[in-house]
Request: fold
Amino acid sequence: MFWDKLSRKEKIGMSFALAFLVVAGLDRLIVNPIRTQFQRVDQAIKISEKKLGHDLRNVHLKDQIAEEFEKFVEYVERSGSDEEEVAKILGEIESLARQSKVYLVDVKPQAPQKVDFYKEYSVEIEAEGEIADLTTFLHHINTSAQLLRVEKLRLNAKEEENKMLKSSMLITKVLVL
Reply:
């Protein structure tokens, strides 16, 4: 009916228009989604290949990493209960204070905090001493064999005419569970 009334040029034009619409529809409905899916899979493969490359490198370095870990394992693994670890930390702090000629006024061990794969032990101390002695004490703490570190430090003058300083600090140690 409608087709019969069209001239030959119009039929050819209409045929091209319909063919274009069919091709465009097929492209939008079938080809484009498949192409997009292939691109996603390609990108996932590239990411997986990079991860695999990193993992293979780690596997090849496994023995070397294990050797390095063995050197430091004694510093980061627990050797006893929480109380024993706190006692070791307190003993180390007191020993370093005596060596540095620093007077410990107050020592407050904090409850150990479990974080993911490690435990953090904290001790809050108040100490007095001359600035040179406190500096030596801080250096000894940060270079101790137990891998202690000073997290917070507050210094105040004890008396204006005296060279003595009053300090409070938070000392922590991290151990792998």
Q: What stands out?
A: The beta strands are 103-109, 113-115, 118-130, 149-157, 164-176. The chain is about 55% helix and 25% strand. The two ends are 85 Å apart (CA to CA).
